[in-house]
Amino acid sequence: MMEVLSFFFNSLVFPGLLFASLIGLLYAGIDRKVTGHMQHRIGPPIWQEYLDVGKLMGKEDITPSAAQSLVFNVAPLIALGAVTTVMLLLPVNSAQPALTAVADLIVIIYLLNIPAICLMLGGYSSGGPFGSVGAARYVVQLFSYEFVFILAIIAVIARVGSLDLTAVVGYQAQRGWLILDLRLIPALIAMIISAQGKLMRVPFDIPEAETEIVHGALTEYSGPKLAIWRIVYNIETLVVAGFIAALFLGGPVAYTIGGFQIPGVADFLIKTLIIVLITTILRNIMARLRIDQALKFYWTFAAFLAVLSLMLVLVVP
Amino acid sequence: MTFVVPVGPQHPMLKEPEFFRFEVKGEEIVGVDIRLGYAHRGIEEALSRRSYKHNVYLCERICGICNVVHSTTYCQTVEQLAGVEPPERAKYIRAILMELERIHSHLLWLGVAAHQIGFNTLFMLAWRDREYVMDLRELISGGRVHSAMNTIGGVRRDVRSEHVPTMLRGLDKLEQSARYYTDLWGSDRTILARCTNVGVLSKDDAIKFCAVGPLARASDVKVDIRKDDPYGAYGALSFNVITEQEGDVWAKGMVRLREILESIKIVRQALKELPSGPVRTPVELKIPPNETVERTEAPRGELIYYIRSNGTDTPERVRVRTPTYGNFASMKSMFAGGTVAEIPIVMWSIDPCFGCNDRITLVDSHTGKARVVSFDELRRWKK
Questions:
Q1: Strand partners, B4
Q2: N-to-C CA span, chain A
Q3: In a mutagenesis test of the A interface, which of B129, B194, B196 is the best target, namely the one with the most A β-carbons within 10 Å?
Q4: pLDDT of residue A257
């Protein structure tokens, strides 16, 4: 009985849906505020994202008549389920994730791709030209960043010698953070570059380039479905940041300062916020690339960094 | 498989309504069809119903950004018809205003161009620095955008001598930021990646399609009405005509950015050599039958006004040819072989101003199914 209750608590409240969406939306607000200041604007208040999503939730639910309505309607929900599940598999409060089933890095990589695939399905099924172009671009982008993303993870796996994220975090607790290992620095850079592509941030916001294809795959979405997409996107940001934090920054660590026990989740929030801010800064100092340039960049420079890191881990003792 | 990407009449890329129908194969553009006329306001007809004085006001409203150059060209044309010469000081003040307008227009272009390639930070910063030049315009004319300075026979307000130091300080700030953006445009990797070898207009094509303004100058065609056919005070002011060789989007941006620096130089010189005297000559506005053409260099290129008078205080016909209209012909060759990602920046590289362009309805005839304004509609609109 307790197990069932705790499963529901984990998936719906902490660290599942409620926690992840609240923090994800907050990070999006911080991202917008920092962007505003970097662009010499005041920017929206930090809680703007809650207001936006709340307003979208209250709007009329429209499915375009040209859309394949089943796929179109279900895609955001599947994506939400996938990113929330990743949240359960990440170490949030301690090295031990909320869902202690046998799940390793491969499951996380797989689940992290589901939102991307849902976005493509949503775009293709929306029945609009911008959705199709956006989805087509996202397919190309997926094949560009995913290779680098996986290769960077493999470098970490080769270093730690385990496919288990708990083991990776535990390893770092004993031997120091992997970011301090010079051999893994190229992998970290490659990871952040591919996260930029995964999260569709400048210079890789190609699939949703506003001035070119309106909003890409999401052009036809509106109202509650768009709100769910926003939540998915913001949770994905948090999840990718948390994933990088677990791989390279030692995951959540509980500290004791002056007799006070500071829970690991505070550490998790600080580390993820730093990673989110790095991606925010990157997205504000560059122009958007073309899709062919992005593909070339990933398969040459970023892939080179990841392979270099893997070779160093394997060759240098 | 080709499919159609409709751009416009409502699209985030376009700041004004116009319709572009791109036939796309994957990412590659295989065909483009341009259909104009969505922002038609019937201004030319309205111009021939109002008196010469009223029309100054209306001409300024043809285009928001290049309002001074529109009203100046109109006033110059009427002055020529009436056979009066505005005082020297008025000519200099007009030149100052027109150059400030050029700076303002080019900075605006830079901002939107940055937005088109997804560089929103540069967009915001360029528009922040555009505030400097708007402040200067407000100082002289009282209006940040619409100056309402011109009148037939001169200008309505004088530049006061105590404003000159403030102007010079503002110009220094502007020069600093313009230099920064020029460096940035030439060195930022992502800008270079997006803008070089994109939307190339060769020199031959530029001449063949009669490109005007910065578009032609970026293709190494040295046309500048300020130099070729000096009007107003420009004969006495020294400046260079900026050209670039490449003809791509990057060169078009570079021409505009370097023109900002050149314009700052012109304003400085004009402020220094500002002749004293009155700013306005009285004009008798009952003009005998005659016709004349006047052309000026607007921020976007050559602007032509044709006016025919008929002895009353109202012109019989006013015809305006705006630079954007002159540049549409070049557009198709710029899009040829491009990708969807290039549409916004290439389109913006001609600095289109549909508001001033659409005074007549154009129908692209070779698609066959063009939407034509019916003759009845046209007649109703004429009455």
A1: B23
A2: 49
A3: B194
A4: 81
- The answer to whether the beta carbons of residues B353 and B36 sit under 8 Å apart is no
The CA distance from B20 to the nearest CA of chain A, in Å, is 13
Rounded CA gap, B157 and A161, in Å? 80
Domain range summary for chain B, segments of one domain joined by +? 42-331
Residues 6 or more apart in contact with residue B228 via CB below 8 angstroms: none
Residue B145 has pLDDT above 50, yes or no: yes
Residue B17 C-beta-side C-alpha neighbours within 13 Å: 7
Q: For residue A124, give the H/E element and its range.
A: helix A105-125
What is the pLDDT, as a whole number, of residue B356?
66
Taking each helix axis from N to C end, the angle separating B88-116 and B249-272, rounded to the nearest 10 degrees, works out to 150
SS3 B324: helix
Q: Which residues of A touch B123 (CB under 8 A)?
A: 39
pLDDT tens digits, A226-265: 999 999 999 999 999 999 988 888 878 888 887 788 888 8
Cβ–Cβ gap B121/A39 under 8 Å:
yes
B window 321-350, beta carbon within 8 A of A: 339-344
CB B94 within 8 A of CB B68: yes
DSSP one-letter string for A94-107: SSS-S--SS--HHH
* Residues B280 and B151 sit within 8 Å (Cβ to Cβ): yes
B349, B253 in Cβ contact below 8 A? yes
Range with the lowest mean pLDDT among A87-96, B173-182, B184-193?
A87-96
In the CATH hierarchy, which fold is given to the domain comprising B42-331? Cytochrome-c3 Hydrogenase; chain B (1.10.645)
- A 10 A CB-CB count for B292 gives 16
| Residue extents of the structural domains in chain A | 2-315
On whether the CB atoms of residues A195 and A279 are closer than 8 A, the answer is: yes
- Single out the residue of B291, B224, B245 nearest to residue B80, CA to CA: B291
Residue B27 in contact with partner chain A when CB distance is under 8 A: yes
- Name the amino acid, one letter, at B23: E
Q: pLDDT, tens digit, for every residue of B243-289?
A: 888 888 899 999 999 999 999 999 999 998 888 888 888 888 888 88
User: What pLDDT score does B179 carry?
Assistant: 92
State ipTM. 0.84
pLDDT in tens, B182-237: 999 989 888 888 888 888 888 888 888 888 888 889 988 888 888 888 888 888 88
Give the integer Cα–Cα distance in Å for B199 and B115. 17
What is the maximal distance between C-alpha atoms in chain B? 69
The rounded Cα B108 to chain-centroid distance in angstroms is 11
Q: Say if CB B99 and CB B263 are below 8 A apart.
A: yes
Contact yes or no for B330/B248 (Cβ under 8 A) = no
Q: What angle, rounded to 10 degrees, do the helices at A223-248 and A48-57 form?
A: 140
**How does pLDDT run across A293-317, given as a tens digit for each residue?**
889 999 999 999 999 999 998 887 7
In this predicted model, what pLDDT tens digit does every residue of B239-250 receive, in sequence order? 888 888 888 889
Proportion of chain A in helix, strand, coil states, percent, rounded to 5: 75, 0, 25
Cα–Cα distance list, A191 to A116, A179, A199 (Å): 17, 12, 12
Per-residue pLDDT at A275: 92
A256 beta partners: A261
- Asked if A287 and B3 come within 8 Å (Cβ–Cβ), the reply is no
Shortest CA distance from A129: residue in chain B: B5
> Which residue in this structure is represented by tokens 């009223």?
B54
Residue B375: what pLDDT? 44
